[in-house]
């Protein structure tokens, strides 16, 4: 069974993959620590958009087993830094020459206000932060992460084992000072 977080992430990926774009060659994947690759193999896959779960920002109990969670997901947009005044700022586009700012905007437009066919609140675009601006191998790279938040309800299965019920309490009394022997004890049954 997949978790709601996995379902949301997979639905975001599916939505990004179905968007018609005026450029080709965009890699869209779940983020799997691509940026930790010391050989920078991910550079060959740009332009790219990577989707990842960030964190749960709020949890509210609705009932004994139901919780309303608000969480952040991120879409990382990665592209080589193009020269001044060309595709980076929205100039003429060739097959793989989409600028990173256009990539961020296109990803935002694809996901904003979407419920993705799930029982969630529509995705709300949030802050954009710089992940990387600099050299990777011999390429100048720019990577930005945009947050998207949503709210969903999770139901925690009821555990009928009863293992965590407190049924009895055992009390031992040490009456004689300095003596570590139990002089008397009680066993109190709380529930039968």
Annotation keywords:
mainly beta, two-stranded antiparallel ribbon, 7 strands
Please describe what this structure looks like.
This protein is mainly β and 192 residues long. The chain has helices at residues 4-18, 100-111; strands at 27-30, 48-61, 66-80, 124-136, 139-155, 168-173, 184-189. The protein has a five-stranded mixed β-sheet. The protein is elongated.
Beta-strand content estimate: 35-45%
Spatial gap, N to C terminus: 36 Å
Which quaternary structure do these chains form?
Answer: single chain
**Radius of gyration over alpha carbons?**
27 Å
- The coarse overall form would be elongated
SS-based structural class? mainly beta
Largest sheet: 5 strands, mixed
Number of β-strand runs: 7
The strands making up the biggest β-sheet line up spatially as 1-2-3-5-4
* SS field, number of helical segments: 2
The amount of helix comes to 10-25%
Q: What are the low-pLDDT stretches, counting only 5+ consecutive residues below 50?
A: 84-89
The arrangement of helices and strands along the chain is HEEEHEEEE
User: What integer is the average pLDDT?
Assistant: 80
């Amino acid at each position: 069974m997949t978790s709601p977080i996995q379902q949301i992430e997979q639905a975001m990926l599916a939505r990004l993959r179905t968007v018609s774009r005026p450029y080709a060659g965009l890699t869209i994947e779940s983020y799997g620590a691509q940026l930790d690759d010391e050989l920078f193999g991910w550079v060959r896959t740009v332009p790219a958009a990577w989707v990842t779960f960030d964190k749960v920002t709020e949890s509210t109990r609705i009932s004994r087993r139901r919780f309303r969670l608000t969480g952040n997901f991120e879409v990382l947009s990665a592209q080589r830094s193009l020269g001044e005044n060309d595709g980076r700022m929205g100039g003429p586009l060739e097959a793989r020459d989409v600028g990173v700012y256009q990539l961020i905007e296109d990803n935002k437009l694809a996901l904003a206000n979407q419920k993705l066919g799930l029982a969630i609140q529509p995705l709300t675009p949030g802050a954009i932060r710089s992940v990387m601006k600099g050299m990777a191998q011999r390429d100048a790279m720019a990577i930005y992460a945009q947050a998207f938040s949503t709210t969903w309800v999770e139901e925690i299965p009821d555990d009928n084992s009863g293992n965590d019920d407190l049924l009895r309490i055992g009390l031992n009394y040490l009456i004689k000072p300095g003596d570590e022997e139990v002089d008397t004890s009680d066993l109190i049954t709380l529930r039968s």
